[in-house]
Amino acid sequence: VLNKLVLFFIGYTPPHRNQVSAQIKKLYHYHYKLLKQELEEVEQLALTFDFWSDRQANSFLCATGHWIDYEFHYISKIIDFSCFDERHTGINISNYLKAKLISLNSHDKVISITCDEAENMKVACRHLGDNIKRVWCCAHRLHLVITNALGFWFKEKSVDNENRSSSMTRSTTTTSTVISTQDDDLLNMSWSDENNEDSSSSDDNIADVDMSDAADGSADSDNINEAEGAEGAEGDHSTSDQDDDESGDQHAIVDNWSNDIETDLNPIEELILIMNLLKKCRTIATIVKKSSVIAAFVRKEQLLLKTKKMIRINCKTRWNSTFLLIEATIECKQVLMKLFSEKRSFNLRSEQVNRLIAVELNNDEWDFLSSLRFVLNPFYHATKLMSGKNYPSIGLAFHAIHKLKHFCSKDDTYEEKIKQMKKLLLAKLNYYFYDDLEQHEHLENHSYFDPAAHLTLTENEKQRNERYIKDLILNDVYPQQSSTSDGSKASSSSNAISTSSTKSSIQLPQSLSNNHTNPSTCDDFIAACGDDGNIIGESNKERSKRLSVNEELKYFKLAVQEFNLKNKPSTTTAMRFWNIHHTKLPLLSRLARIHLIACGTSVPSESAFSISAHTARKERSRLSSQNLCYSVFLKDKISKQK
């Protein structure tokens, strides 16, 4: 009967789930063979990998592969997404990855792996091969810089009143800086269900979620890849916000990003202010979500003011969720001010009114919140800029980190609190990015081939990288593969572009200049830093013959200067530069294909986890782990075919 009704209303009988499962398995094996054939033509390969666990505590390992073809197209694909039932030791991870790479005939082609700073990841990279570089995830490092510098998750140590008062006397913190014990209790009190008139205060904890959960960061909305907004801004497409139930599923994504967050330090005045302000903002977000009366009021006022920002609780594993919480709170300032002024008109109980009073922000707090947004704005756009998966990101990450250091070093006429926050961020930037000399050298060497990096490289750094390049070429560190298919592809690519490249030489076509009407992600980042991002260069002399190593380096430097004068950094500039000049720079262009494939972040793996979390949502509880692996693996293969 059910099948007849479905046939009558829909017009066809849908396939049985067993049939769909069998078809997915066939598609997986078909595209796996195609991937294997495609990787046979790849000269060098870069990887990212990470772990994810679903609702049933099933563990999955995702590995993504990245390479550049002979026509300088950047390619990123999931090469493996599988269940991982063994212990997550470095040896087990290494053996598993090595077996997968050998099955794809690609183990000897891997030159770099981008992952987080977990110890098992470091051990796995060391055991995969001596010639494989481990590159830190810049987004993870930037996350630690911000959260630990500004104390997003600091917890005030529990001390008695006598110690608290003596501590306050010794410090320069004002009495309004620290939330009183009574107000702190109100912030941590659960929000009662105003629809239940018979509920008493003793039953409040049954009706609602305790605020201590929100304060600890177990938020309902952990958008794993807000950073993927950069891809939407530059042409890559990703899944945006889901509904409440679906966004609630995202917190199931578990990674190592919260492991190194500091929580038990004795903060200074500015950090105490940030800690208390964020606690109030989280409480406001919880109240708006839990109270139907207040939520309806907020929605109504937002419609009148045409404000679309939603106040959502931040999470501990993604720092930019805190920035979005701050930004939404500021944008909804008029709505919240009206809410606080009319709080006694909602027929709330006295403890609920008292809680609204406790989270009300005064003028000084609103000003400090705006200052905090100003300081974090460049970091937010830098995170978006470096977090793409369909374009070379390591050069943009290097450029963004140096720009952030310059932004924090500028001693402009800002108020003292802004200067103090920038000073704290600068100290953590040096600690996480510049004190690790080996990792910084890897980042610098790979970024040299991206024109964007030359906007921040010093002359000494450029000379050091030139010596590194000469050493690679003279010692034949990356020997040329003698494959007929490689030669045919290289020659066809050269013939296709040689005519236009010879005519243009260093004088780039106007069509390639970055005169977009709408600002790009990098434009937003540069504007947030307060710079124009330009450099003073010199014109280049036209050359028509193939060049030696030294001459190629000279040509390359002049070409980069000319290119940067006419093109602002973006997610496409690296590939466009080499599409123009690769025939003039045969030695350097080959090294560029090798070095630019290294990922600046592990976002490609994290993006796959966003897909898997959505695919394995609670409405699809019958989806087997194996079919989930097949579906995630096929996602970027079938989508690109369409």
From TrEMBL:
Source organism superkingdom: Eukaryota
Entry annotated with the keyword Cell wall biogenesis/degradation: no
Keywords carried by this UniProt record: Metal-binding, Nucleus, Zinc, Zinc-finger
GO molecular function: protein dimerization activity; zinc ion binding
Any GO CC annotation of this UniProt entry: nucleus
Comp. bias regions, Acidic residues: 194-213, 223-233
Sequence ranges of Low complexity compositional bias: 482-506
Subcellular location: Nucleus
Residue numbers spanned by region Disordered: 184-251, 480-515
Ranges where the HAT C-terminal dimerisation domain occurs: 562-637
Pfam families: Dimer_Tnp_hAT
Designated name of the protein: HAT C-terminal dimerisation domain-containing protein
Source species: Rotaria socialis
